[in-house]
Write a structure and sequence with these properties.
CATH architecture of one domain: 2-Layer Sandwich
Oligomer: single chain
Shape: globular
Strand order of the largest sheet: 2-5-4-3-6-7
Radius of gyration: 18 Å
Strand content: 15-25%
Distance between the termini: 27 Å
Order of helices and strands: EHEHEEEHHEHEHHHE
CATH class of one domain: Alpha Beta
Number of strands: 8
CATH superfamily of one domain: Ribonuclease H-like superfamily/Ribonuclease H
Length: 211
């Protein structure tokens, strides 16, 4: 049995991903409708969320940021400030507009805590990549396998409820949603052939444990 997988050390040696598009921070309800209108012009968008990290037992935070990205525009909805207004809710529930994300059930579970949401039109990358013999399930590793670039995780544990998002936070959040879209497009294009990947190798069988 052959699989496609990559070592963490290999990923760490790769150049970092950059997002060359425009980033739009949506932190007021009045901005939501026009942002969603712009998103509806795209046939498919990338999706992700960010939540303030928990460092203490029993601590829990709601989703702070919801990202939706086209090929060249990333919209960062600060839902800790705006909630999920009707235009955004309708877009997330619209089965005719395709959204691509990774580990989306976890995102949905968190979002449903702040809004009576019934997500539709979503594609889960962790399910899709298995059709291409990719066994790595993290966004960083999947992206590295396909594009030989590293998605930096330096901002992952930053404060997503801060009064203002830093430029580094904005770039990180935009890349996570945009990368989902780029991965999906690349796989659907037929350009990725597992057998031709430098990370295609025979799976190492685990030896049975004997006492």
């Amino acid at each position: 049995m052959h699989i496609v997988s990559i070592e963490k050390q290999t990923v760490n040696q790769m150049p970092h991903v950059t997002f060359m598009g425009q980033i739009h921070v949506i932190d007021a309800i009045s901005q939501v409708k026009s942002a969603v209108t712009a998103l509806r012009t795209a046939s498919i968008v990338g999706f992700d969320t960010e939540t303030r990290p928990c460092f203490h037992r029993g601590e829990r935070h709601n989703v702070a940021l919801l990202q939706l990205s086209t090929d060249d525009h990333a919209f960062l909805f600060r839902v800790n400030k705006t909630g999920i207004p009707a235009p955004l809710k309708q877009f997330l529930e619209d089965s005719t507009h395709v959204k691509v994300g990774l580990s989306t059930p976890d995102d949905f579970h968190q979002l449903i805590r702040i809004c009576d949401l019934q997500p539709a039109g979503f594609i889960e990358l962790q399910q899709l990549v298995t059709r291409y013999q990719i066994t790595d399930m993290s966004l960083q590793k999947i992206y590295a396998i396909l594009f030989q670039h590293k998605i930096s995780k330096n901002q992952q544990l930053s404060n997503w409820e801060a009064p203002q998002l830093t430029d580094a936070q904005q770039r990180y959040a935009a890349i996570d949603a945009w990368a989902c879209l780029r991965i999906y497009r690349h796989l659907q294009s037929g350009q990725f052939i597992p057998e031709q990947s430098p990370y295609y190798h025979e799976a190492i069988e685990e030896q049975p444990f004997h006492k």
